[in-house]
Structure formats: C-alpha cells, structure tokens
Design goal:
Layout lengths: L2 E8 L3 H14 L6 H22 L7 E9 L2 E8 L7 H5 L15 H8 L2 E7 L3 E9 L7
Antiparallel strand pairs: 1-2, 2-3, 3-5, 4-5
C-alpha cells in the first residue's frame, strides 16, 4: 500500500457529501479524469447512504468509517458500519430490491456501486454490521 486515510463520522445525511468529497480528494493524487472522480464519488455516496438509511435507520449517534487506500494506480475504498447487517447479501445486490420500500428507495445502491467500480465486495453479518470494499484502477488524464 502506497498511501491511505481513514476517518469516522456520525450517521448524518449531511456527511454523505463530506465522505464522497474526502474520497475524491484522496483519489486526486493519482490525477484521475473528471469522469473517474465522478464515478468514485457516486459509488461512495451510495455506500454511505446505505449505511445511514439501512444499517442505522438514520441514527445520528452511530458512526460510519471510511478508509481509502492507494496501491499503484488502484484505489480501494472501504465503508464500514456496525449496524443491523444484511441477512441476504445476494438479495440486497439485486437491482430494485430495498429493505425500506416505505421510504421510496430505488434499490439501486449496490448496482450503482458495481457499475462505477471495478470490484465491489460486501461482508456483512446480521447484528454486526457491514463492510463494503470497492476498487477501481485509475488511468489518469495522461493515460497512464
């Protein structure tokens, strides 16, 4: 690992924007394209929003941890919560599935993460929380 950063913040919806900006600022050291930064920001936004809404039910006392690592041109982003966990990860990954239909959620969070990142891994246990690990190889504006 060439570099990393880690921060924790309360499960507040206003911190979703903070998290995506922090991850994009960390990735900027690799001189990514605007599209790559946009993809990364969107994926982080989805992961953090999932933690706020689904893991914690918008409990502002709960904490979310964001860790970003750089290895060569690869960015690895981990979003971790200690919330309710996911009983059926495969079901949760299905497009349009949501555990909170009463909130008019689209159910596209994991699908969006998978569309914008090269790899998405979900580790979760009911009652223990969830860790989402996303990776993306960044080409950089100069192609390399």
């Amino acid at each position: 690992m060439d570099n990393y950063m880690e921060l924790s913040f309360p499960s507040l919806s206003v911190n979703e924007g903070f998290a995506r900006t922090a991850a994009a600022a960390f990735a900027a050291q690799l001189d990514p394209t605007i599209d790559q930064l946009s993809d990364l920001r969107t994926a982080v936004s989805e992961a953090v929003t999932n933690a706020i809404i689904h893991a914690y039910g918008s409990d502002p006392a709960a904490l979310i941890t964001l860790r970003c690592e750089r290895e060569g041109r690869k960015i690895r982003i981990m979003v971790k919560d200690t919330g309710c966990g996911i009983a059926d990860i495969e079901l949760a990954r299905r497009p349009f599935y949501t555990s909170k239909p009463e909130l008019e959620r689209s159910g596209m969070g994991f699908a969006v993460m998978e569309a914008f990142m090269d790899r998405v891994e979900i580790d979760s246990a009911p009652g223990e929380g969830t860790t989402v690990v996303m990776e993306k190889e960044l080409e950089g504006r100069r192609g390399g």
